Amino acid sequence: MPPQKSYHDEVVHFLKGIPDLTPREYSDKIRSHGYIAQERAVRAVSLMAFRHLDRLKAIFLRDINPDELPAKSNILFVGPTGCGKTFLVETLFREILGLPTVTVDMTSFSETGYVGQDVSTILTRLLFAAGYNPVHAAMGIVCMDEFDKIASGQNNAVFAGAGTTKDVSGLGVQRELLKILEAAEITIPLELSHSDYSPRALLSTRDIGFIACGAFSGLKGLITRQDKLHIGFGREECSPEDMRIAVTYTIEDVELTKHFLDYGFLPELIGRFTRIIPFHALSRDELKTILETKVLSRYEAEFRYKNIRLTVDPAVLDLVVDESVKKETGARGIESAIARHLEDAAFEAYSTPGTRNLNVRLENNSVVFAID
């Protein structure tokens, strides 16, 4: 059945306001917003954005039958914490394109009937991000963060923190996601509550793009152990590879559905993702670039607003990067590391009237500072 005229007209108006860009132009805009590294992922998500919007414009602006076009695509990002998975999604779809975009933490969801949020409220959040406009919501983007945490209790991975994934309701959440990730009409609550009596509305997921992100802790070690068993080494106990956080995944690591099945996922759910994109752990040089261009510049701006000039010795920056590499928390560890080293300096600078300069340097492997 063709869409109603009022709905069609509103979609046309919405889509005409979005400029036509090529995948390379999307990629360039992502880089211009300060996104570092992950070239494969940047290209993949730029192409997804191009196809997402081009498909919508073909349907609503050029009156092409949706059945003649490829179905909407969903993407799964696999990579260590702090490597830029959710940041990439939010940068492109929310900041650059201005599409209704919502990032949801999947650890808070449970199967219907259990304690926890109903999976259908993912779409309620998207509707809220679209200003309760169902037309705009039906063309939006959902980023499912911590996706690996809905693995079932049959998870065979061994890693630090194992046991924190879903046990009773993990498979239930996965089953309910199956329908949402497809083109389906979903009845969703209009309020983020557990009440069965809250008002509800119908929302189509035919044109909603889903991007799942997860660190999949222990997946690399699981794959390594399987490879060793395959060539006859016999069963091995937990190895250092199992316990690592900042791992780098390859295309070969993520292309076999069996790996995700052993991790605790339904093969049908993994099959809902058109592309599975591996992320690499950020290198030392990449972390330093993020520190200098993103993190440190914000601290300099904060001090500048107080008429204080902050100068940080390069040796201190190298120390911060080294600490972040050891913590294996990627870009997330950068800010906590430099915040710790600037804490005493900031306290004294903000407490000393007339401070104009704050110099932070490394002396005998310790961070010291001087104010004047």
Features:
alpha/beta; 372 residues; 15% strand; Rossmann fold; 5-stranded parallel sheet; Helicase, Ruva Protein, domain 3
Quick description:
45% of the residues lie in helices and 15% in strands. It has 372 residues and is α/β, with parallel strands linked by helices.
Compute the number of strand runs: 12
Structural class from helices and strands?
Answer: alpha/beta
Strand order of the largest sheet: 2-5-8-1-9
Rg (CA only): 23 Å
CATH architecture of the largest domain: 3-Layer(aba) Sandwich
Major β-sheet, in short?
5 strands, parallel
- Broad shape: globular
- Please indicate the percent range of residues in DSSP E strands (runs of 2 or more): 5-15%
Helix residue percentage: 40-55%
CATH class of the largest domain: Alpha Beta
CATH superfamily of the largest domain: P-loop containing nucleotide triphosphate hydrolases
Written as H for each helix and E for each strand, in order along the chain, the element string is HHHEHEEEHHEHEEEHHHHHEHEHHEE
- By oligomeric state, this entry counts as single chain
User: How confident is the prediction overall: mean pLDDT?
Assistant: 86
How many DSSP helices?
A: 15
- Number of discrete domains: 2
Q: Roughly how many Å apart are the termini?
A: 73 Å
User: What is CATH's topology name of the largest domain?
Assistant: Rossmann fold
Low-confidence stretches: 158-168, 231-236
Fold and architecture overview:
With 372 residues, the chain is an alpha/beta fold. The protein folds into two domains: 5-278, P-loop containing nucleotide triphosphate hydrolases (Rossmann fold, 3-Layer(aba) Sandwich); 284-371, Orthogonal Bundle (Helicase, Ruva Protein, domain 3). The chain has helices at residues 5-16, 23-32, 39-60, 85-96, 121-129, 134-137, 170-181, 219-230, 240-243, 251-254, 257-263, 267-270, 284-304, 314-327, 330-351; strands at residues 75-78, 101-105, 109-110, 117-118, 141-145, 185-189, 200-204, 209-214, 275-278, 309-312, 357-363, 366-371. It has a five-stranded parallel sheet with strand order 2-5-8-1-9, sandwiched between helices. Helix 1 (5-16) crosses helix 3 (39-60) and helix 14 packs across helix 15 (330-351). The N and C termini lie far apart (73 Å). The model is unreliable at 158-168 and 231-236 (pLDDT under 50).
